[in-house]
Amino acid sequence: MATADTRPAVVALATDIICVVVFCTVGRRSHDEGLNLVGIAETAWPFLAGTVVGWLLSRGWLRPTAVAPTGVTVWFCTVVVGMLLRKATGVGVATSFIVVASISTAVLLLGWRVGVRLMARG
Fold first, then answer.
1. Radius of gyration over alpha carbons of the chain, in Å?
2. Number of Cβ within a 10 Å radius of residue 62
């Protein structure tokens, strides 16, 4: 169970995971793919692996809500590792998809951190 010390990191990691799953779910919906748990998991796992890599590289638990370096590293790894894993498993990585995925995940993974920062100032 999360303690008071670990709660911010657990919540931030969970938020990142939810953002990636939302991105994958919306993508599947926009392409008329099935919205079932297995389909969403198949689409999300490469990006979620990238999210975990980003958390480890940035040591996200130290500054979980920081836009930089945590958010930027998590976002970058989510996209790059996700695309590399998709390519390695024979799933599409068209240039247009890379652009859309990069923008969408930036809005989601960086956006919530910007929101937290703005709320902390206010």
1. 15
2. 10
Containing H/E element for 67? none
CA distance 102 to 96: 10
- Model confidence over 44-63: pLDDT tens digits? 999 999 999 999 999 999 99
Q: Are 77 and 51 in contact (CB under 8 A)?
A: yes
Domain residue extents for the chain = 7-115
**Is the peptide bond preceding residue 69 cis, with omega within 30 degrees of 0?**
yes
Residues in CB range of 105: below 8 A, 6 or more apart: 19, 20, 23, 47, 75, 78, 79
Whole-angstrom Cα distance, residue 119 to residue 112? 11
DSSP 122: -
| Sign of the CA dihedral running 36, 41, 42, 44 | positive
Q: What is the model's pTM?
A: 0.93
